[in-house]
Write a structure and sequence with these properties.
The complex is a heterotrimer of chains A (285), B (195) and C (266). Chain B has 195 residues and is mainly alpha-helical. Chain B is built from 10 helices and no strands. In chain C, 27% of the residues are buried. Chain C is built from 12 helices and no strands. The longest helix of chain C is centred in the middle third of the chain and has 32 residues. Chain C folds into 3 domains: 56 residues, no CATH class; 53 residues, no CATH class; 123 residues. The chains are: A alpha+beta (285), B mainly alpha (195), C mainly alpha (266).
Chain lengths: 285, 195, 266
């Protein structure tokens, strides 16, 4: 009898504790503030969200909700124009905190890289350090992202630092979307490196897609791109030229099938009205 | 060793057949047709979903093979080449004859196949799924559709497909996966296990 | 991109017998204990089985064809055409290229040089381009556009995967929230989706992607939350998120943006 009674009491206590825990975690004022801020962020209301988050950090700076609040504060600042430096600092603060939430941490690193890059183009080259440092991040994904973003830097010497990682992506990753991005990035920074890589890997010799667009006798476009990126290249032709091609019956499939059918021959599309000529062919090395 | 011998033998046979064809030998041409007409039919039937179009495609394919015998490169796979011709014809045919069908297709737009719509009394029913699968395969982008057809209806291996479409093995796998994934999301309500 | 559950792609490859023995072992061990991956496997298998059935249907249709007759008919037709072409006057083009002269304006206007080159056989490298040049050359502008195209595709991808996840989410009643539903699975999926967005981000600021920007960001906010929720979602929190999804008409907007992005395809 007594045993059963104790069991009931125990279960009761646990239940109460559980409920209390729930109630406690849901009704703490800082959690309310956080939840409200998140809702506002979802609706794109940055300023009011920022107010709520700042209030949280001021009044409940020691609570476990503060870490997340820092992250979301940084997010808000990054979306508000002219406050990039503050956003950068907020992300740094958040990361220093050592929050163990992997998704948030990763997003913070990524956003930090984006902001750093943007600041560097606006005249603060020291911001690039943040990106360069992340080339050695223990998280492989962050390394990759840093390299891909760094490759866009206008300062060639800095952009060149991304090359080893870009090469690593192309050699070891299987996700074609990722490797395509890396190849395009490499084409920006060091096309010779991509050439060497392709030459070594293809035994039948590298195939290069050539596209030339001439208008009234002068060259508007003249590119050579690895065949592996061919469909992207064709999509990158200007809308006007694409419309012209479509009007002549050419779409992506037809171009590919013609190039395959008549190996190595030339596709030429002329529009006498605008005096434009598009030539597409494959070079074999 | 044995595999290479079979492959060499196939290449030699292909070369003989093509040379015969180029010289106008009817029997060589008939042999080529007999060897590959079913495979071509499988591709076309999977791609278009009907018998008549598929038969047209088979005929057109071999007529073109006959005309363009000069373009075949000896030493390469004859099957791959014939299927390449077939594939190109499928795409040409699609563009010419199915453009008008777009109006019909748009009335069967994806929204109507949407999970929000009623799938029928027994969504887990096999025949329902098969019927809708056919419709959904037709909604795939051309290359994805081709690859799906080649993998599952013609049962070609990835390597063979890569050869026919002249793309890398990696692209074949990723396009195949994209096709499966797209089908999977289009067919979501039909894939749930019956309670 | 690390994941505890196998990617869908892995499952597909496993079902198609394309993974090696070692990986198969690992995957099967995981499947034994993971109901959500088991369910996914079952769905994919159903899909692939249906495709197999279709194939058998095609095979059955093939049995209705008289193949020998067809072969003979084709051979006759080919000979007929060849002879008709021979009978034509010699000034006319070779029969091989007769198809070029269909009324289709497209071919005429295109001015294909294919005929001539094909007659001369294999195309020599550099023939059209005598001056030496490095193999890969493209302007920054061009590369930007190629990247944009990649981003367009990736965004479509992202939207589709989000759509699927959101649908799953929207259809689960809140009282099942604490139950065996794919909490962990979907929170991992949500995390993966947030991860994959990073590659699209830089492109979302470009004009053609403007419509996608807002919606991708909204989805991301949602998924960031979902990704943190594994094992701790309460009924209220669940309902809260469901309401948000419904009120913002997220699923409808995703469809609209997808259509917009698909329209830009070449």
């Amino acid at each position: 009898m007594r045993y059963k009674h104790i069991r009931v009491v125990l279960v009761g206590a646990l239940l109460l504790a559980g409920l209390a825990l729930q109630a406690w975690s849901q009704d703490r004022p800082e959690d309310k503030l956080l939840r409200e801020a998140k809702l506002q962020i979802f609706d794109g209301k940055w300023a009011p969200a920022l107010d709520n988050l700042n209030k949280l950090l001021r009044q409940y700076g020691e609570s476990p909700a503060a870490a997340q609040a820092l992250f979301y504060k940084a997010e808000c600042l990054s979306k508000m124009s002219g406050r990039e430096n503050e956003a950068l600092q907020a992300y740094r603060d958040y990361l220093k905190n050592g929050d163990r939430n992997k998704s948030l941490v990763e997003k913070a690193e990524v956003s930090l890289i984006d902001i750093a890059l943007s600041l560097s183009t606006k005249g603060d080259p020291s911001a690039l350090r943040e990106v360069e440092d992340r080339l050695q991040s223990p998280d492989k994904d962050i390394q990759y992202y840093a390299a891909l973003q760094l490759s866009k830097c206008r300062d060639r010497s800095k952009a060149a630092k991304s090359v080893p990682i870009l090469l690593r992506i192309i050699r070891s990753e299987k996700d074609t979307d990722l490797t395509d991005l890396a190849k395009i990035a490499l084409m920006r920074v060091d096309p010779k490196a991509l050439e060497n890589l392709d030459r070594r890997s293809e035994d039948r010799g590298a195939r290069v897609l050539r596209i030339q667009i001439m208008e009234r006798g002068s060259s508007r476009l003249d590119i050579s791109i690895p065949m592996a990126l061919a469909d992207l290249a064709l999509a990158a032709i200007s809308d006007r030229d694409r419309d012209m091609m479509r009007a002549k019956g050419y779409d992506l499939d037809k171009i590919f099938s013609d190039l395959e059918k008549y190996r190595g021959s030339l596709i030429e599309i002329k529009d006498p009205d605008s005096n434009t000529a598009i030539k597409i062919w494959i070079d074999f090395k | 060793m044995e595999e290479r011998e079979t492959k060499d033998a196939a290449i030699r046979e292909a070369a003989l057949l093509i040379r015969g064809l180029r010289q106008g030998d009817r029997e060589s041409f008939l042999t080529i047709i007999r060897l590959y007409q079913k495979k071509v039919f499988q591709m076309a039937c999977g791609f278009f979903g009907n018998r008549e179009d598929a038969l047209d495609i088979v005929q057109e394919t071999f007529l073109r093979v006959h005309e363009k015998a000069d373009l075949f490169r000896e030493g390469h796979s004859l099957q791959a080449w014939v299927l390449q011709v077939a594939k190109n014809i499928c795409i040409d045919y699609y563009r010419k004859n199915y453009r008008k069908r777009k109006e019909l297709e748009s009335s069967l737009s994806l929204d109507e196949l949407n999970p929000a719509a009623e799938p029928g009394p027994n969504p887990g029913e096999a025949s329902d799924l098969k019927r809708i699968l056919g419709l959904c395969v037709n909604k795939l982008a051309k290359r994805q559709r081709l690859i799906f057809v080649m993998r599952h209806y013609q049962e070609l291996r990835n390597e063979e497909i890569a050869q026919i479409l002249d793309i890398s093995l990696g692209t074949v796998k990723s396009l195949h996966f994209k096709a499966v994934r797209n089908l999977r999301s289009m067919l979501a309500p039909y894939l749930e296990a019956r309670p | 991109m690390t994941t505890r559950h196998p990617y869908q792609q892995r499952l597909v490859e496993y079902l198609s017998g394309e993974i090696d023995a070692g990986e198969r072992e690992v995957l099967m061990t995981h499947l034994k204990d993971c109901p959500s991956c088991q369910a996914e496997e079952a769905r994919l298998k159903k899909l692939l089985d249906a495709a197999s059935d279709q194939k058998h249907d095609v095979d059955r249709v093939m049995d209705t064809v008289d193949w020998e007759k067809l072969a003979l008919r084709i051979a006759d037709a080919a000979e007929g055409r060849a002879q008709a072409a021979l009978r034509a006057r010699p000034e006319k083009r070779r029969p091989v290229f007769a198809w070029l002269f269909r009324p289709a304006m497209a071919y005429l206007l295109a001015g294909l040089f294919i005929g001539g080159l094909a007659m001369f056989g294999v195309f020599k490298a550099g023939w059209l381009n005598p001056s030496a040049r490095p193999a890969y050359v493209a302007s920054v502008d061009f590369l930007d556009k190629a990247e944009l195209e990649l981003a367009r595709r990736e965004t479509l991808n992202y939207l589709e995967r989000s759509q699927y996840l959101l649908l799953d989410f929207a259809q689960t009643p809140p009282d099942k929230a604490g139950a065996v539903w794919h909490k962990e699975f979907s929170s991992q999926q949500a995390a993966d989706l947030v991860s994959s967005k990073r590659f699209i981000n830089p492109q979302l600021d470009k004009i053609p992607m403007a419509k996608a920007r807002e919606i991708c960001d909204q989805i991301e906010v949602l998924f960031l939350e979902l990704s943190q929720m594994s094992g701790r979602l309460s009924e209220t929190q669940w309902k809260d998120i469901q309401d948000r999804v419904e009120q913002s008409q997220l699923l409808l907007k995703i469809n609209l943006v997808k259509k917009e992005l698909q329209g830009r395809e070449i």
